[in-house]
Amino acid sequence: MVTRTIVVDDHAIVRRGIVQILSEHPGVQVVAEAGDYAELRAALREHPDVELLVMDIGLPGKNGIEILKTLAEEMPKLRVLIVSQYPEDQYAVRAFRAGAAGYLNKASAPEKLIEAVDHVIAGRKFVTPEIAQALIENLHAPEHTAPHERLSDREFQTLKLIASGKRLSEIAEALALSPKTVSVYRARILEKMALSSNAELTHYAIKNGLVE
């Protein structure tokens, strides 16, 4: 039984590396590649019987979390393994809530990718010890939730971009939003986190390991 798979990553070199690793798995057939959401939709139309996505979370135009939510509604049987550069404690919990079947850091060894794919193909969730700890911490302690955990997925994206030093116009372009909408998100972030400026937001993000 071969699992038909699409690999989604906006970096061609990374994408090709993932495809190369998966080509060594006898139970996986990569039928298409995509660099963004539009290409993914085209690939899904061409291959409606695809069973697995191996997908990055930081995609241009439409974020991986939003894509997960859309696919969970439209194609509930499609399994999605997230392979991301972001540490597990930043995005994994959000990814699982949105419908991911597994989450793996890009810094992991190739053997770990094969292990994760095997878990997902078998219908199980792939959870690293770091993710398990993050899930446990998020399970029963809403009153101890960190300020940034109160943000929506789009607000969290915006926070990271602001803290990375991106200008309003750059953030708007990266998220495919209008500058006015980004300003609204910024205002909500500051209000929810009880902060008053971009400088305070950046300090918080660095202190909590949300940006390097």
Portion in strands: 5-15%
Count of separate DSSP helical elements: 10
What is the gyration radius calculated from CA atoms?
18 Å
CATH superfamily of the largest domain: Response regulator
Cα-to-Cα separation, first versus last residue: 42 Å
Strand order of the largest sheet: 2-1-3-4-5
Q: In total, how many beta strands?
A: 5
| Overall pLDDT level | 88
**Given the C-alpha coordinates, what overall shape results?**
globular
Residue runs with pLDDT of under 50 for 5 or more positions: none
Biggest sheet character:
5 strands, parallel
CATH architecture of the largest domain: 3-Layer(aba) Sandwich
Helices and strands: which structural class?
alpha/beta
Percent range for helical residues?
Answer: 40-55%
**Looking at the chains present, what oligomeric state does this protein adopt?**
single chain
Q: What's the CATH class of the largest domain, please?
A: Alpha Beta
- The fold-level CATH name of the largest domain is Rossmann fold
Tally of distinct domains? 2
